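JOB MANIFEST
job_type = single_chain_structure
chain_count = 1
residues = 156
[input]
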Amino acid sequence: MTDETTEKTIRVALITGANGAIGQAIARQMAALPKYEVVLVGRNEQRMVETTEAVQVATGNNRVRYELADLSRQADVLGLAGRWLGPLHVLVNNAAASPRRRLWFHQPPSNIPHLPRDRSTAAPQPSGRPSSQKRYRPQPSSHPAPDGQQRRAAAG
C-alpha cells in the first residue's frame, strides 16, 4: 500500500474543548478507532500537551495532535481556520463559550414585544390565609402500605 492510498483512508477528527472530561473521553474513543487522526483544540497549552500524551498512551495512536485556540475569540477561530490544511471528516463541537460580559436586565429591553396579561394567565395571588392553613391536602394512595394494610384517608 502506498503512502497516497494510506493518506486517503485516514479520517481526520477535530474535537473542540478537548481538555475537559467529556472532550478527553471523546478523544480517546475517536483515537482508538483504526485509521483516525485526531486533532484536539483547547486554550491551555500545558493541559493540551498532557491530554494529547494521555490519549496517545491510552490508545497507541500517534496521529493525535493539538491546536491552541480560544474559540470564544474570533481572531483565534480565524487563525485556526487559516492553519488548517487538508480534509476534515468529523467535527465534535464540545467547547463551551460564554459572553465576556453578562447582560442583566432590570426591565425587559424595549425591542421585545410584551404580551398583555389577562386574569386567566396571571400568577396566583396570595389568598390571605395564615401560613398555618394548608392549601394542599394529599389524596390517599390506592397502593398498600409497607405492612400490607390499606391506607385510609385521614378524617378531617
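[summary]
Helices lie at 3-9, 21-32, 45-59, 74-83.
The longest strand covers residues 36-42.
exit_status = 0
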